[in-house]
Amino acid sequence: LTAMGDPSMDPTMSAADSTAQQDSLFSMMDVFLISLITGLFTYWFFFRKKKEEVPDLPKMQSVVAPVRDSSFIEKMKKTGRNIVVFYGSQTGTAEEFANRLSKDAHRYGLRGMAADPEEYDLSDLSRLSEIDKSLAVFCMATYGEGDPTDNAQDFYDWLQEADADLSGLRFAVFGLGNKTYEHFNAMGKYVDKRLEELGAQRIFELGLGDDDGNLEEDFITWREQFWPAVCEHFGVEATGEESSIRQYELVVHTDVNMNKVYTGEMGRLKSYENQKPPFDAKNPFLAQVTENRKLNEGGERHLMHLELDISNSKIRYESGDHVAVYPANDSSLVNQIGEILGTDLDTIMSLNNLDEESNKKHPFPCPTSYRTALTYYLDITNPPRTNVLYELAQYATDSGEQERLRKMASSAAEGKALYLSWVVEARRNILAILQDMPSLRPPIDHLCELLPRLQARYYSIASSSKVHPNSIHICAVTVEYETKTGRLNKGVATNWLKSKVPEQNGSSSLVPMYVRKSQFRLPFKPSTPVIMIGPGTGIAPFIGFIQERAWLKQQGKEVGETVLYYGCRREHEDYLYREELARFQKEGVLTQLNVAFSRDQAEKVYVQHLLKKNKENVWKLVNEGMAHIYVCGDARNMARDVQNTFYEIVSEFGNMSQPQAVDYVKKLMTKGRYSLDVWS
């Protein structure tokens, strides 16, 4: 268009030529205008489309979890802390010990904080020396067969792979384990050894707590020697007696929207009303109970088989996995605590952390009622630990009762003995202590602050997902016993499960649950023989194993020998899954069924006796058939006796000495050919 006014145009051009050029120019202008309009429209179209997409971005961002400040160093600097106590905890005890140690620090002019390793970047340990008088303490529980707890898995992985220089780090480790297990305190031992290998300085010896003995006493004994070592290392002194310091403050809600109040949810508010996968410890699935039947024909005990419906949950499981169940405390125990303390249990309250920088804002989901807290969130049936007694002592108006509580909480030999006999061995829970000490009437909010969290209970899944993809089966025995004080104590979870009947009158029984993966797995090749040893409810995972082997056989797969060693008290009393096992044997899936009835004759017969009886066949399966061995049930006696029997068989038929036989079995374990799923 600018060419029309170009001064270089020839002035002698004829009118016809001029007219022709104008026609040509107008046609060019038309083309250009059309092109321009088309271009503008195209640009506008795409621009408009982008504008429409913009509002979606905030929605996408809103579902992403907030970025956590993962530097515990920066947090310690900001809040003036110099001691960090990390905990690897599966049932809450290691976390409890970590909290106690972090609270202790103030007595020595130091400031501590308990920390979940899952929430922080542990590679920052190399920077801890930037803080004066700094120390890292690790309270590490061992889970299963020498495994780290769920929240310490990342830390464990980092330690294995790390090539960090931790030469400026000062540390101490207290391990929580159980001597009845093969890999006693494996996690505590590993962390202690590995930190030293990376150059860190141990300022106090490794503590090894044994839950099969008296874990509380082990911890107190270690702790009372640990702090003097810290004082000597840093040149500090205790500033005074241990004092009671509240960690949370009570806020009572008189005018609250009930839609904002927790009623038993583990994580997200209203998560039980609006269920969203994935389901885990913080977001359990509410499974409907579709079957609950008694398995035993007689006897005093109640053995039961439950089926949980997991349809539409997207939960997947494998044979050998565990199902975790969140139980509820007996309402009569909750009511009695409320009555003794003269409390309106339906009061809505919050316990807010006085440390505003803490990641843990409340000891349990808040706001909630005292009734909900005592029913779903707090452990009111286990004997309380010594720190709880110490904190409660101040509320006893009778000087004798106060002195007794303080003595039991002390580290003196007499105090430890009194705690062991009066609390632990007598199995006195908090209600029993309140009943037996009439002057002890603490504020209910402080009691709720002190009591540990009610933990999920784990059960070996008694079904195969190949056969029951939408259902998880549980085999359990109700726990009920009389204490030395004449009280009847009942197991929280088993008695709660016993009451969960399938749908009646339109109302269904729901169980909050999730699945925890296990290493207890059938061999990769179905043709590999298996030897399963599981007396009592230890048969649970093997019902799933046998179901799966039957399914594999139906699919045309070659299935190896499937051998079961099962035991119970009496054939006509507590022979679990009798009909199912007979059917599997008839179908040829269960190639050997060996059952020990311990009380049907004068001499007691157990599974290990049947193993000895069939020792030649057992050795042939293990040595020539490359069989996989599985043991499930009691860790304290049965699992140990079975293992000793295998030592004997290997020694006899493998022509090995006792140490060689032990080494042979240990190698089977290392190769995944000898697996344990045991409890004590």
From TrEMBL:
Residues 282-523 form the FAD-binding FR-type domain. Its cofactor is FMN; FAD. It comes from the Eukaryota. Residues 83-227 form the Flavodoxin-like domain. The keyword Repeat does not apply. InterPro entries: CysJ-like_FAD-binding, FAD-bd_FR_type, Flavdoxin-like, Flavodoxin/NO_synth, Flavoprot_Pyr_Nucl_cyt_Rdtase, Flavoprotein-like_sf, FNR_nucleotide-bd, NADPH_Cyt_P450_Rdtase_alpha. Gene3D superfamilies: 3.40.50.360, NADPH-cytochrome p450 Reductase, Chain A, domain 3, Nucleotide-binding domain of ferredoxin-NADP reductase (FNR) module, Translation factors. One of its GO terms (molecular function) is FMN binding. Its EC number is 1.6.2.4. The keyword Acetylation does not apply. One of its GO terms (biological process) is response to hormone. The chain crosses the membrane at residues 25-46. CDD domains: CYPOR (cd06204). Keywords: Endoplasmic reticulum, FAD, Flavoprotein, FMN, Membrane, NADP, Oxidoreductase, Transmembrane, Transmembrane helix. Pfam families: FAD_binding_1, Flavodoxin_1, NAD_binding_1. GO terms for cellular component: cytosol. It is an enzyme of class 1 (oxidoreductase). This is NADPH--hemoprotein reductase. It comes from Sinosuthora webbiana.
